[in-house]
Amino acid sequence: MAEASWYVVHTYSGYENKVKANIEKTIENRHLEEEILEVRVPMQDVVELKNGARKTVQKKMFPGYVLINMVMNDDTWYVVRNTRGVTGFVGPGSKPVPLSEAEMKPLGIKTENISVDFAEGDTIAVVAGVWKDTIGAVQKMDYNKQTATINVELFGRETPVEISFAEVRKMS
Q: Where are the domains of the chain?
């Protein structure tokens, strides 16, 4: 099977989340989970001053663009290209060009494969960050984002929290 790469898709401005949802729905309907791995609208935290109050809001890093991690073939190209709201792939002519390692680094996309000594169902301890000294069972693992989701007790109820692989260690 071919290697998956990150591609940039141009969309109508303001349609990024709608395009993401439409592509994810198509992936599910056509069973392309093995070929189109992830669809992302890169966001960043921005501090705004409104009426003298500081407020942190999430803004799109690249309005009008969506990132897709996929194996490029005729089928996946057709599915993405013919999604409502997509105007085309970024690249010369009609040939999509994958992002390079240097282009992906500032976006927070890690390409190197990381191996961890825990899996879903294992109990882990958080050793750094906001949730330091928290212990929880791994509910979900996301190797693309290099995060593990654990349930922590927050305000008397179980709440799922995403924690970086670098901030946890397996309980023995």
A: 5-107, 123-170
DSSP state of 118: -
pLDDT of 5 over the 60 cut:
yes
Domain 5-107's class? alpha beta
pLDDT, tens digit, 9 for 90 and up, residues 87-96:
999 888 767 8
Stated as kind and residue range, the H or E segment containing 78 is helix 74-81
- The CATH number that domain 123-170 falls under is 2.30.30.30
Instruction: Report d(CA 60, CA 84) in Å as an integer.
Output: 20
Which contacts of 145-153 are long-range, i.e. CB under 8 A and separated by 24 or more positions?
145/110, 146/110, 146/114, 148/116, 148/118, 148/124, 150/124, 150/126
User: How far is Cα of residue 148 from the mean position of the Cα atoms in its chain?
Assistant: 13
Q: Distances in Å between the alpha carbon of 50 and those of 18, 45, 56, 57, 58?
A: 28, 15, 11, 11, 15
Tell me which amino acid residue 152 is.
Answer: V
How many helices (H) and strands (E) are present in the chain, helices listed first?
Answer: 3, 11
Q: By the 8 A CB rule, do 70 and 7 touch?
A: yes
In the structure, what pLDDT confidence band is assigned to residue 131 with cuts at 50, 70 and 90? confident
- Are 148 and 124 in contact by the 8 Å Cβ rule? The answer is yes
